[in-house]
């Protein structure tokens, strides 16, 4: 089957991207007490992902996406169309934290093949929008704008406080948006959030939760006036419960 072909391609040849993937797994999942036990399966998943050419077309043909692929000419060959390949085959260049899009699925599947296809489906439907600049209403730019509008509208006191101390809240919480809270929420709570994303088929739940967390920590945030202290107030999300927070936010409206 196709997954076996991907594994064989990983074994047959190395690409430069492999070093980035291995480094990312080591710097993220390996250093996380919730995910370090899944280090081996994450290597397999992410390395197979880099070889998966079926990812290339859906991402690059999305008219609202601004992502561009890298083309490479085979070494020692003339620069013709026949000798030009997309690099990497998936068309996706990994970045720091990219592995965190896959880590929560380790808790759902014993079968690496099933985990891979679920991760790939989520990536093609949602996650690629979180790291590409686009005009899409579910893209990262639109989500940042939605966060700022929600915060300004529903927490004007907090918005004014950030303005007075010359801090842009989007800079503080951007990592939450870009990773879909992976690595910031405990796995159980993260899966509740991702289940809501799937259920509503919308990424707008992510900025809504971000605003709700700021609202929940409002009293502490109003007492600090430096970016370092603001980040300290928001650093630990391990005690938060996603469903009650979102229910409170929606009922309040």
Automatic annotation (TrEMBL):
SUPFAM superfamilies with a match to the protein in the record: Ypt/Rab-GAP domain of gyp1p
Annotated signal sequence range: none
Domain Rab-GAP TBC residue range list: 1-201
Name the UniProt record assigns to this protein: Rab-GAP TBC domain-containing protein
InterPro entries attached to this UniProt entry: Rab-GAP-TBC_dom, Rab-GAP_TBC_sf, TBC1D19
Listed PROSITE patterns: TBC_RABGAP
Organism: Atta cephalotes
Lineage: Eukaryota, Metazoa, Ecdysozoa, Arthropoda, Hexapoda
Pfam hit, one: RabGAP-TBC
